[in-house]
Specification:
The structure holds two protein chains of two kinds. Chain A is α+β, with helices and mostly antiparallel strands. Chain A has a six-stranded mixed beta sheet with strand order 14-18-19-17-16-15. In chain A, α3 (60-77) runs parallel beside α5. Mean pLDDT of chain A is 77; it is low at 130-151, 256-306 and 510-519. By secondary structure, chain B is mainly beta. Chain B has one domain: CheA-289, Domain 4 (OB fold (Dihydrolipoamide Acetyltransferase, E2P)), CATH 2.40.50.180. A six-stranded mixed beta sheet of chain B has the order 8-1-2-11-10-9. A five-stranded mixed beta sheet of chain B has the order 3-6-7-5-4. In chain B, a hairpin with a 2-residue loop joins β6 (76-82) and β7. Chain B is globular. Classes of the chains: A alpha+beta, B mainly beta. The A-B interface holds A 326, 329, 569, 613-616, 655-661, 664-667, 670, 672, 676-680 and B 33-40, 44, 47-49, 52-56, 84-87, 140.
């Protein structure tokens, strides 16, 4: 059809990706439970959908490949072939190939010209000799979308013809010759097909429907058509279609064929159903046809949920978010004005109401932008599978909390760091099976990927039960690479030593493997996570394993903050890092190795004189016997920040300091206060 | 030809007149309440809220090593951008927008000892006198 496909391209890409993801998930499941035919059916269904979609878009290579996948899967599900590892591998290869096709389409807008012949040959090979399989496949094909190639009408079509005959349906061989001047031949052919399918079923066409769709025919095409109508009424219908030069209708007689009993009932039902179906639109018709095939077969196969959704460009959401931010600023400003002018109750009430609405609006917009972290997680099972094979390790990935939701922008940023950490765990963490057994561990290593919400943060943990991190080796490496001085190392505790991993230029892998150690170290992971206001820490025990804990904020745009005063300056401390606010008597502060500390709730925590660090000239901290202290935390670590005065807890809109200022120490951003002035946001992570 | 070619925003700095190419200039603002940025270079005069955006202010006198004068009602902030960086440049007073033909602009003929010569793009000769055209990208360098 000669429609502008570009407008459908993005939909195609999005949907293909979703289908591929589903396929990936199911294939991994299938690998675990090779006997579960439901999974095979599911993959078959997805492959089929993809074939239909790519065919519609004119992506022939993709359609060909999915078609071959269908063949293979059909062989499995009809028990003609066992699901061997080889077949699973081929399926994975197909999946990769399909993913590559889609990527290519994303980048170029068109399909890549080459098709992976090797892969097709592999499929062919594993199917080889399976005549019965071919037959079954054909059945599936014809039922799904009436298209099958080959000059000779194959056994199955003959079978259909015979069935139709036995039900006294008419079978015609109809030849169409389009007028020479026909502009949209494919479209014209579709109109013909459409007209025919309203009254019966096309069981065979020459050339194939795919080719007809792509206008890969001259002016002629023929179909085998099963209908209840007689020849005269058929002629009537067809003659009403313009731009057709000639129509030749002949009754079709078949040679003797044998038929399988089981096909019969199903097929009869199918044809009857078909005959009564009246669908005007071809696309819809193809869809419904597909469903008809699938439904009766997969009643127990867990059909995918279809949610009522709208796809929205992320830019529009960003815009919406910005507007909400502006609204919150102006609301805060009204708060300020109300307090200053001591306005009457009715005004305060109104402002409180406005406050509630803006908060709700903010939450609503936030929710729209939230996506389950599954989006990132779902590529990891495959990653772990492939990597553990490459590394000859036996590794199981356990995931939990995939449903945890985070802001879309964070999703985009968090993928790479996580891949890196998982690779690290697989490569450096988990030992080889023999070694594990020797150490009294199970041969199979486990990597646990866990996400869960924690207040305004989302925590993601990557844990393994591998060797753990040897701090001595790290220390030695750090000195060797000139990352830290011997002096520095000498007094370093294990915790700090582990953090050396995150310094630039550090990589402990002795041999550069394909998996990790490409020169990109954990420092990149750390800076990436910090760029989204997150933090990372490590918990490791020698011989027991390591756990990397990433903390990221739920959202990047609007946060709750504690506004504090230092001298005359107002700073914002993100509330998600504040654990409590307290007063501490001056005399309780001690010095340990030059660092001021205080014992707070039985923990010794460092004291941070924020005013001094920020160079505030006239702090009032010495005016009384007590310090006002904001206890902040970063993961397990705590610190007490001395401030002059607490102002208020409020919602703030984070504004970037801009690229000119983004390297300013201890500041993570700025916000605009109610009076229009700017207050800087303290980067608590940098203080602990 | 773009009508903005050869157009310059001139301003007063110390006893001299200087200029930025107009394509770098977003707007000219009066000096307003600003927020100090801790641990920033001395020439950074803080940040201001410019219609919802946070903009850093660079005191051009400090940046070029010219003795400071108090900011007053004549003080202007020229908001300039270069690449994806935008900042406000604090100058003594702004003057006007004028056209200086390329043929009237000489290369900066300064001795190596002049530490500010990196900042200078050229010297424009006009009827009212000499105007030093500055490079925004150099001023943005720390």
């Amino acid at each position: 059809m000669d429609i502008d496909i570009n407008q459908y391209l993005s939909i195609f890409v999005e949907e293909s990706k979703e289908h591929l993801q589903l396929m990936n998930d199911v294939m991994l499941e299938l690998e675990k439970n090779p006997d579960d035919l439901d999974h095979v059916n599911e993959i078959f269904r997805v492959a089929h959908t993809l074939k239909g979609m790519s065919g519609t878009m004119g992506f022939q290579n993709m359609a060909t490949l999915t078609h071959q996948m269908e063949n293979l899967l059909q062989a499995v599900r009809s028990h003609e072939k066992d699901l061997t590892n080889d077949i699973v591998d081929i399926l994975f290869e197909c999946f990769d190939e399909l993913e590559a096709y889609v990527e290519h389409i994303v980048e170029e807008g068109v399909e890549q010209d080459s098709i992976n012949k090797e892969l097709l040959a592999k499929i062919e090979k594993s199917l080889n000799g399976e005549v019965a399989v071919e037959k079954n496949e054909t059945k599936e094909e014809v039922k799904a979308e009436p298209k099958k190639s080959g000059l000779v009408v194959d056994e199955y079509v003959l079978d259909l013809v015979q069935k139709a005959k036995s039900e006294s349906l008419n079978i015609y061989e109809i030849k169409f010759v389009l007028e020479e001047t026909t502009m949209l031949k494919a479209a014209r052919a579709f109109i013909i097909f459409n007209a025919l399918e309203e009254e019966g079923e096309i069981i065979f066409s020459e050339p194939t429907t795919e080719d007809i769709e792509d206008e890969k025919f001259d002016r002629e095409f023929s179909v085998l058509y099963v209908t209840v109508k007689d020849q005269t009424s058929l002629e009537e219908i067809l003659n009403s279609i313009s731009e057709v030069e000639k129509i030749v209708i002949n009754e079709y007689n078949l040679p003797e064929t044998q038929a399988a009993e089981k096909v019969e009932t199903k097929q009869r039902a199918k044809i009857e159903e078909k005959v009564t179906t009246k669908k005007a639109e071809i696309e819809i018709k193809q869809e419904t046809t597909k469903e008809k095939v699938v439904k009766p077969k997969e009643n127990n196969g867990g059909a995918p949920k279809i949610a009522k959704t709208v796809r929205v460009d992320i830019d529009r959401l960003d815009n919406l978010m910005n507007l909400v931010s502006e609204l919150i600023i102006i609301k805060t400003r009204m708060d300020g004005i109300a307090i200053e002018n001591q306005v009457k109750n009715s005004m305060t009430e109104t402002i409180e109401y406005l406050d509630r609405i803006t908060s709700n609006l903010h939450d609503a917009v936030m929710k729209v932008r939230m996506v389950p972290i599954e989006r990132v997680f779902n590529r990891f099972p495959r990653l772990v599978r492939d990597l553990s094979r490459d590394l000859n390790k036996d590794i199981k990935l356990e995931m939990s909390g995939e449903e945890t939701e985070v802001d879309r922008t964070i999703i985009d940023e968090i993928g790479d760091p996580l891949i890196h950490l998982i690779r690290n765990s697989l490569d450096h963490g988990i030992e080889l099976p023999e070694k594990r057994v020797a150490l009294g561990k199970s041969a199979e290593g486990t990597v646990i990927l866990k996400a869960y919400p924690d207040g305004n943060n989302v925590v993601i943990e990557v844990a393994d039960d591998g060797a753990g991190i040897n701090t001595e080796i790290i220390k030695a490496k750090a000195i060797e690479k000139g990352i830290a001085t011997e002096e520095e190392i000498r007094y370093m505790n294990d915790e700090d030593a582990v953090m050396l991993l995150f310094r630039a230029g550090f990589s402990t892998a002795d041999t550069i493997s394909d998996v990790s150690g490409r020169g990109v170290g954990l420092d990149v992971v750390k800076s990436k996570i910090e760029s989204i206001n997150g933090s990372i820490e490590v918990d490791t025990k020698m011989g027991k394993g390591s756990k990397f804990i990433i903390r990221i904020p739920l959202t990047l745009a609007i946060i709750q903050a504690l506004m504090v005063k230092l001298g005359d300056e107002i700073y914002a401390i993100p509330l998600n890092s504040v654990t409590e606010i307290t007063t501490i008597e001056k005399q309780l502060i001690n010095k340990v190795q030059g660092q001021e500390v205080v014992v707070f709730r039985e923990n010794t925590i460092p004291v941070v004189r924020l005013g001094k660090i920020l160079g505030v000239s006239d702090t009032r901290e010495e005016e009384s016997d007590e310090y006002l202290v904001v206890i902040v935390n970063k993961g397990e670590k705590q610190a007490g920040i001395i401030v002059d005065e607490l102002i208020v807890q409020q919602e703030i809109v984070i504004k970037s300091l801009g690229s000119y200022l983004n390297t300013i120490k201890h500041m993570s951003g700025a916000t605009i206060l109610g009076d229009g002035s700017i207050s800087l946001i303290v980067d608590v992570n940098s203080l602990i | 030809m773009d009508s903005r070619d050869n157009m310059y925003v001139t301003f007063k700095l110390d006893e001299e007149y200087c200029a930025f190419p107009i394509e770098n200039v977003i707007s000219i603002e009066k000096i307003q309440a600003r927020t100090r940025v801790p641990n920033s270079p001395n020439f950074l005069e803080g940040v201001i809220n410019l219609r919802g955006d946070v903009i850093a202010l660079i005191n051009l006198r400090k940046k070029l090593g010219i003795p400071e004068i108090p900011l007053d009602k004549d003080t202007r902030v020229i908001i300039v951008n270069c690449g994806d960086i935008a900042a406000g440049i604090i100058v003594d007073a702004s003057s006007e927008v004028m056209e200086i033909d390329d043929s009237k602009i000489d290369d900066a003929q300064l001795t190596e000892e002049n530490k500010n010569h990196n900042y200078i793009k050229g010297i424009g000769k006009t009827d009212t006198g000499i105007i030093t055209i500055l490079k925004v990208e150099e001023i943005f360098k720390n």
